[in-house]
Amino acid sequence: MDDIRFLDFEKDYLELKTKLDELKDMAVSKNIDMEDEIRGLEARVADFKAEKYQGLTAWQKYQMARHPDRPTTLDYIQALFEDFIELHGDRCFGDDPAVVGGLAWLEEMPVTIIGHQKGKDTKQNLERNFGCPSPEGFRKACRLMKQAEKFGRPLITFVDTQGAYPGVEAEERGQGWAIAQNLLLMSSLQVPTVSVIIGEGGSGGALALGVADRVLMLSYSVYAVISPQGCASILYRDARRANEVAEHLKMTAPELKALGLIDEVISEPLEGAHRDQESTYREVKARLLFNLRELKNQDVGELVEQRYERLRKIGIFNE
Amino acid sequence: MLDIFNRKQKKKYVTLPVHADDLSSLTVPAVKRCPRCGERTQQEDLNQNLKVCPRCEYHYPLSAGERVWMITDENSFEEFDAELAAADPLGFPGYAEKAAQAREETGLNEAVVTGRATINGYPVVLAVMDNRFMMGSMGSVVGEKVVRALERAGEERLPVIMLTASGGARMQEGMISLMQMAKTSAAVERFSRQGLLYIVVLTHPTTGGVTASFATLGDIILTEPGTMIGFAGPRVIEQTIGQKVPTGFQQAEFFLEHGMIDRIVHRREMKELLGKLVALHSTGG
Ligand SMILES: [Zn+2]
Prior knowledge:
By secondary structure, chain A is an alpha/beta fold. Chain A has helices at 11-29, 35-54, 58-65, 73-80, 122-128, 135-150, 168-172, 175-188, 203-207, 228-236, 242-248, 253-258, 277-296, 300-312, and strands at residues 82-86, 99-106, 109-116, 155-161, 193-202, 214-218, 222-224, 264-266, 317-318. Chain B has 9 helices and 11 strands.
C-alpha cells in the first residue's frame, strides 16, 4: 500500500482501512481469535467506502480524474488492443509526445487509435508536456484520422488533457487553426468513431479529439469548458473557490449524460479506475466493442448524418 | 435605416450615427484620445475617418452595428433571428443578470448579429460579432445564429462574410458552450462542401473557442491592422507557464508573418476588397 497515492479526502478511509489491516495482522501474529471484531470493522470499512465514494463532489471527482495513478491512453492501448503500432509526426513540423496515435487490433477489427498522453511522474510529464498538445499533436491526429478514413478503419480516441498547450510557440504555429481543423474533420469523417473520456476533458484541447458518433465517459472523469480554478479566478478573483465552481460547471459524467452531451457513463470501481485497473479495462473494452460493432452495421453516410444532427441540436436558448 | 440601429432607439449606446445630426445623442466624450499614440481627435472627425486614428492608423474597436454599416450597401441589411436570447441552462450564478445587463448596455440581444445584405450590389449573408456583449463569448445563441446563417446561405447559395470578435466560450453555459465549437465547425464543413465562399474577417480581439472553430476555417481569412488574435491569450500564457510574451505577439502582423492569415486590410479598404472577392466567386461554383 506504500506506493498508492491517496487524495486528501481519502485519508479517513485510508486510516480506517489501515486499522483493519493492523487488526488482522495482530490476530495472526498473536494468534488470538478476533473474528467478530474483524468482521465488524470490515463491515464498517465497506459502509464507509460506499458512502464516501458514492457521494463524491464534483471537485473530488475532478481530483480523481487527475489522479497521477489513473490509467492513461497508453495503458488502455496496452490492455485492450493487440499489435499496437505507434505512428509519429504531423508531416509538417514535428512529433508531439502529448498525443499518441497508431494502429492496432481490437478483437476482429483493425482500428486507428489516438489519445492525449499524460505522464505518471514529473520526468514523464516533462517529456509529454503534461498531456497538453501543441498544434503538431492535433495535426498528427488529423493526419491519422484521414488515414483511418482512407482505409475504412474505425477511429477510437482517448481524451485526457487539461487543455491545449498555452505557449508562445503553440500560438505562433496556429493552435486555434489546428483545433478547428480537427473539429471540422471529425464532424464529417466517413468512418465509425468512438471517443472515451478517460480522465480530464479540458476545453478545446480535449474536444479536438472528442467529436464522435459515440462519446463514452468513465464515471469519475470530468469534462469542462474551463478548469474550476480558472473559472473561479474569473468569477471571484479567487482560485480557492474552485471546489464551489466545480459544482456550477456541470462537469461530471452523470451531469453531462443528463444534459445529453455524452452517450454513456462507464462505471468504474468505487475507489477509482486506478485502484482496480483490470476491471476498468474489461469494462471499457466491452463498451467499445459493443458500440463499434453496432456502428459498423450502419451505413456510414447515415452515421455521418446522425453525427451532424446530434451536434446541430446542441444548445439551449430562448426564441 | 438599419434595423439594428432602429431597434433600441431609446438606448444610449455607441454606434456610428447613420446621419450626422444623430451625433448629439452619443454619450461618448467629444474628444477621443488614441490609446496607441495619444493623439486627441474630435469624435466627429474620428467617425468621419471610420474610427481610425488620423495620426497612427490605430483602429478603434467598433460595434456590430458600425461594422455592418461600414461594409454593406446603405439600407441593404436585413437581420435574421434577432429575437434569439440566452437562456440560463445550468442555472449558473449571476449569468441571467449579466446577460440582461449586456442586453441593456448594448441594445443587442446577443454577441452576434446575423442577416442578409449586399456589398457593391452582391448579395451576401453576414455575421458580425460584438465584443461588448459579454466579451463576445460564444454560448448557445451565438452557436445557433452562426449555424442558421450558414444554413440559410447554403439554401440560397450565397457567400458568407463572418466578422469575429470574441473572448472565447461562454463559461456560464459550461459544456454546452464548448460544444458550440463542434457545432459551428460542422456547419462550416457542410456549407463549404457545397462549393460556397466563406470569408472570415478577424476583428479585435478574437481569441479562445471562436479562434479554435469557425473563425479560422475561412476559405479566406482577413483581419484589420493591430487585431489581437489567439487561442490562449497573453495573460493565460504568462500565468500558466510563466513564459513572457514578446512585443507584438498575437497581433495581426504576427500571424501574417507566420502564415496563418491571408491579408491585413485597412478598415477604409475592407468593403471594396470584400466586394471584389465576392465578385470573383460570382460566376460559377
Ligand atoms: Zn493614434
